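step: validate -> pass
step: tokenize input -> pass
step: predict -> running
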Amino acid sequence: MHLLFLHILVCINLVPSATGKTISGFFSSVAARNTRGQYIGKFLYHGKNALLHCRLEDIQAAVEKEATLILFREHTWLNLHESENLSCLEYLLKAELTVTLNQEENNQTIPQLHFPQTWYVSYVDHHTCEKGDIIASDAIQFEIMMFNPDAAGNPLDHFSAEETGLQGFYFLLLLAYFVATCIYAQPLWQTMQKGGPMHTVLKVLSTALLLQAGAALFNYIHLSRYANDGIGIPIMGSFAEFFDMVSQIQMLYMLLSLCMGWTLGKNRKSQSKPLQWDSTPTSTGIALAAVITQGILLLWEQFEDADHHGYHAHRSMAGLLLIGLRVSLSMLFASSLYQIITVERSALKRDFYLSFAKGCFLWFLCHPTIVALSVVFNEYQREKIITIAVILCQSISVVVLYRLFLSRSLYWEVSSLSSVTLPLTMASGYKSRYYS
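step: predict -> pass
step: emit ->
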């Protein structure tokens, strides 16, 4: 639990001041001198009529210092930072666009792009390449807004090429959650009120689904505000990440406890307490170890990548270890369920275990699989594709598990036939009349 609270604090503290496409701050001659240009931000432009707009508070100071914005394409920017032989002046001459800041409102149209390209923006002035001490100079307050063309071709879209479409996706996802809630909430609530062998697992599934819906809502609120001002509400994005992490950990603990409980407890003859996990110290230890490991890796990934937007493309070491953890857990599930299925004679029980396996594998393997398949797409498309595909796959996984645990022909009958095998057992007082 402490890991969860630590995660949300990290999410909040790691939100940088220039994550939005509306960037506010101060131009500093000292900062520009120290780094051969004060880095302002980057933006993935696309199409025709893309725009950079800069508004200044002190135009007189900007004119006196010959304030200028210089822009580089990504490949040029990376090559320049790898070159150590260029002088300051040679470095500045490599700029592919320059914007002289001699007005209160300054606009620069980006050349037409046949495919999306990332542009880096830096600030320089006549002090940047001078030698000697800089005479005291006032910082210049600025606001920079970066726009892509909207559907009508007007430069009004704050979203970069890698973010286009996410707001619409979260809206449709929330609409689907709302419709599903209207249809299934009351029957599900009535079923849970009756108790029964599936009561605990349904509560866990419902909580995980509510957390996912909450994450989608926070993301939608953030992106809706972002569409208007280019900043959004970063704290909402942090809450979305936190809710998603709690959902992931809850599902991991539930699925692993169920699976290991079946495997380690299948030979025990004593009946478990009703409506409780069929857990042993070993199964509980394995589940907790996996949960803690995943929590640590998620926190590590936050520290390595401040520009977090839901699901990573996993280019960092922490991300790769998370992929390895999910694959390892899937192998553990496969091994455990295989041991059960191979010795199980009841076709009904085998169907139940196979359906459960499908839900487990879809939940844990969808992320590594989609990350692997995403390499065929352009880099700017990968994170968006991973985000959308993983959310859809995990939603389908939850639906599969819901149908499994609500089915009288599978979970109810299996639990009734063999209370020793299943972790959530039926007390003698429960009768099938509750589900008729």
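step: describe -> The longest strand covers residues 113-124.
step: cleanup -> pass
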